[in-house]
Design a protein that fits this description.
single chain, about 250 residues, alpha/beta, OB fold (Dihydrolipoamide Acetyltransferase, E2P), five-stranded parallel beta sheet, five-stranded antiparallel beta sheet, LytTR_DNA-bd_dom, DNA-binding response regulator
């Protein structure tokens, strides 16, 4: 079996690769891609694989955007860190869904189903129905975090969060009073749970709040550099690929 992984978090992509090889050592992983644009380019230039594993959120948009530019002729298995994107209703021959962190047995069952029920055409029509489903679905975003504190718990409101960052295998929220709290969510999970009107995933290490930005400067190779009001020494770069999305986010 030939397989493509589309995932913008390197640790997640590596884990998926290892799981696939554990489940099916004979499977060939044709490519590991991390953006919509790279995926579209690859599918236009190569024969389509037997199955594609697609993270829903990528660095430059939703993986659904791939289907607007390429008629994918293979089954797909979507992966996501947050159940807001649950697509269990679309578990048919040409599409499946796995919730992160992905368990080996769940992935095995999804791949087995594709083996048992091969399809002749790609999932483009089903994805269109999925997009309509998302448009109609009311999204509810996180408003608070409950965190361990001394001998009990404390509540941190999302409106008090300035930005979030990932370092040394830990996700931290920086609050408007400059204090920091550790949360159990991954950056992927935070990105899904926080209101995108208020927060933007600038890069793999940082999610910034709209009110945290002090200045935006041009950087090298078409990138942008963000300076924060409460942490002016921190350097946050927005990649050239994400600059258009960042500008759209600001210009609302």
């Amino acid at each position: 079996m030939r397989l493509v992984i589309i995932e913008d978090e390197k640790p997640n992509a590596t884990r998926l690769k290892n799981l696939v090889h554990d489940i099916s050592p004979d499977t060939t992983i044709e490519a590991i891609l991390d953006t919509v644009s790279a995926s579209v380019a690859w599918f236009k230039q190569h024969p389509h694989p037997d199955v594609a594993l697609l993270d829903i959120r990528l660095a430059d948009g939703l993986s659904f955007d791939i289907f607007q530019q390429v008629s994918l002729q293979c089954p797909v298995i979507f992966t996501t860190a947050y159940d807001e994107y649950a697509i269990r209703a679309f578990k048919v021959n040409s599409i499946d869904y796995l919730l992160k962190p992905i368990e080996k047995e769940d992935l095995r069952q999804a791949l087995d189903k594709i083996h048992r029920q091969p399809v002749q055409t790609g999932p483009t029509e089903m994805v269109q129905q999925l997009l309509e489903f998302f448009k109609q679905k009311e999204v509810s975003y996180r408003t608070r975090f409950m965190l361990p504190f001394r001998d009990g718990y404390r509540t941190v409101l999302v409106e008090d969060v300035d930005f979030a960052y990932y370092a040394y295998s830990t996700t931290r929220l920086v609050l408007k009073d400059k204090s920091e709290v550790v949360v159990t969510q991954t950056m992927d999970e935070l990105e899904e749970q926080l209101n995108p009107a208020q927060f933007f995933r600038a890069n793999r290490q940082h999610i910034i709040g709209i009110h945290s930005i002090d200045r935006i400067l041009h950087s090298f190779n078409g990138k942008l550099q963000i300076r924060l009001k409460r942490d002016p020494e921190r350097e946050i770069l927005v990649s050239k690929e994400k600059v258009p999305l960042f500008k759209q986010w600001l210009d609302k």
